[in-house]
Amino acid sequence: MLPENWDVRHSFAGRRAPPRRLPQATQQPPSSEEKTTVQALEPRPAVVSHVPGRQGRLPSLSPRAQHFPKDGPMIAALVLLGPLTVSAPAGEDGFQMQIYGRYQVDWQDFDPDADVSSLMPPLVDELRLRSLRLGVQGQFAAQLPYRFDYELKGVDYRRPRDIWLGYEGLASASVKAGHIKEPFGLERQGSAKNALMIELGLVNALTPGRNLGILFSDPVKGGSMTWAAGFFRTTQHLHEWDADGEQAITGRLTAIPLEQEAKERLVHLGASFSRRSPDGDPVGFVTDPEAAFAPDYLETGTVAADAVNLIGLEGAYIEGPCTIQGEWMKAHVDAVSGANPSVSAYYLTVGHFLSSGDRRAYEKDRGRFGGVTPVSAWGAGGGGAWEAVARYSYADFQSGPAFSGSELWTLGVGINWYLDANARLSLNMVTADLNKVGDTDMLLARFQVAF
């Protein structure tokens, strides 16, 4: 279901021309008919006429609308994106629709050692549109949610993302079917727009992404635990159910063993498992040095495999403005013949808000981190939210003689500036150390607007 505060959005779409000024020569007050015409032409926000559970109450502006800046450079983005941030009124059958999207521009600068330069393809400093995504979400009727989005431009150009239909009428679980994220890991379950660092950690080279499948999930014990499990099949093309695709059963369990609301303190623990059946197809792993515009620094090669087992452990600690999170993952390959290789990776990330009163949101019903809404938005009399971040990552791709991989370490620090609930500027400095080769110093920057 959509959050309860999803009931109002300002819409600049469909705004009519302003009413014509009455002829000056008449000097007569407007008639009642003319007053009615003028009122009908005046632009007004789109308001949901009916929200379940809110009968008899006037809906209020959503938090996102409240944090739009009143002036400053972001006003241009507001004008451009305003037509899209709309909510369709809920009909008697419960139909709801929200248009959403994100826009990311990345700049990445590389300074590799001579030995790295001689081994890798050219590392090109680039300013590039990273992501331009647009989608709709809502419900067709009560207990029938949906979500469709598509990458219009960027690194994943012309690729579908979430395309699923759901049903929430089951007594013990909700179900989703379509092109959807497999329930594995902590960073991967959240949106990349909310990650502490610009790029996800090295462990995500081992996590499955979105695939065609059916997913069951439900929070239990008042949200202190969540579980999710599903059956998936990898495909090369979204519109085809590939009979030769890899089948997988994937599940994730999370728990909150400690929560102290008065101290804004919370502990998150989780575990994931995936059993994948490539049926003799080649399997291998690659990863970049936590910079999407760089080539792959680690590459295992491939081996024919009967099965792949993925294991993931995750943990996070939140106390007021401070967030600490980490993950460890391992992939074990059952080869058709010869040795059974494995690869592993882990990271530890720390984030701390420098601005007073700000903190990172945690979504208990999904066991993941959400976005940041500054206490005092920039352009509305405040300075936004400032967050210092740091991460250490490690990937070991050399375990087992069947793989010809190596090791990679990364150490990064950065700063995030959340102008409001929609706009974010990030700057990261990262050093990647490729075992027995050399280092690469990288400077990454991002401007992001999400609505």
What does this protein look like?
The protein contains four helices and 24 strands. The radius of gyration is 25 Å and the shape is globular. The protein is mostly beta strands. Strands 4-5-6-7-8-9-10-11-12-16-17-18-21-22-23-24 form a 16-stranded antiparallel beta barrel. The longest helix is centred in the first third of the chain and has 10 residues, at 32-41. The protein has helices spanning 32-41, 63-66, 74-81, 114-119; strands at 8-9, 46-47, 87-88, 96-112, 126-141, 144-154, 159-167, 174-181, 210-220, 225-233, 247-260, 265-277, 282-283, 286-287, 298-299, 303-319, 322-335, 342-353, 362-363, 368-369, 385-396, 407-418, 423-434, 438-450. Strand 22 (407-418) and strand 23 form a beta hairpin. It has one domain (101-450): Porin, CATH 2.40.160.
What's a quick, concise take on this entry?
The chain has helices at residues 32-41, 63-66, 74-81, 114-119; strands spanning 8-9, 46-47, 87-88, 96-112, 126-141, 144-154, 159-167, 174-181, 210-220, 225-233, 247-260, 265-277, 282-283, 286-287, 298-299, 303-319, 322-335, 342-353, 362-363, 368-369, 385-396, 407-418, 423-434, 438-450. The chain is mainly beta.
Core attributes:
globular, mainly beta, two-stranded antiparallel ribbon, 451 residues, Porin, 16-stranded antiparallel β-barrel
| Beta-strand segment tally | 24
What is the name of the CATH topology?
Porin
Strand content: over 45%
Query: At the first level of CATH, what is the class?
Result: Mainly Beta
Major sheet: arrangement of strands = 4-5-6-7-8-9-10-11-12-16-17-18-21-22-23-24
Class of secondary structure makeup: mainly beta
| Structure annotation, total helices | 4
Main sheet characteristics: 16 strands, antiparallel, barrel
Number of domains: 1
| Distance between the first and last residues' Cα | 18 Å
CATH homologous superfamily?
Porin
Shape: globular
Mean pLDDT: 81
Low-confidence stretches: 1-27, 33-85, 237-242
What is the CATH architecture descriptor?
Beta Barrel
Q: Level of helix content? A: under 10%
SSE ordering: EHEHHEEHEEEEEEEEEEEEEEEEEEEE
Radius of gyration, in angstroms, nearest whole number: 25 Å
